[in-house]
From TrEMBL:
Membrane-spanning residues: 13-33, 54-75, 87-108, 120-137
Organism: Desulfitobacterium hafniense (Desulfitobacterium frappieri)
InterPro entries in UniProt: DUF4418
Keyword Transmembrane helix: yes
Keywords attached to this entry: Membrane, Transmembrane, Transmembrane helix
Name assigned to this protein: DUF4418 domain protein
Coiled coil residues, start to end: none
Amino acid sequence: MEVKLLNGKVTKVIGGLGAALGLLIALTPFQLAPVCQRLLELTSGKMTHMRCHYTGQGEVFLGIVVVLVSLIYLFNTSIPAQKALGGVLMILGCAVIILPTNLGIGVCMNPMECHTTARVLYVLGSLTIIDGLVAVFQEKLPVSPSKDIKA
């Protein structure tokens, strides 16, 4: 059984972009566009973080997983494995988008800082889905022939 290999430049772009997006996803909730830092007082008098804090923790985890999957993609050479990893990137991108919504953990109900965080994560998650789509359909990408100069 022969395994097809893909153009190295396309693989590097897809894997590198995925790793960069994963790093941005991991850094967004607490560094780039921080979630709310206030605490919520419960009826018992105890203080706890708001739900956007826990969404941020989940997004950091998802960002780290996106980086790892992208690095595995980058160093893998078989097309079937790369397509499967592209599918995983698409699923992770969907998870990045869903987590700040009410389907996931969510963010604060009132417009606060965490709503900006959610908007940034929607964009990053969408770009991760597009990166995964390109990885899945990588064989259909037009690749220009090499222009070697022979003297």
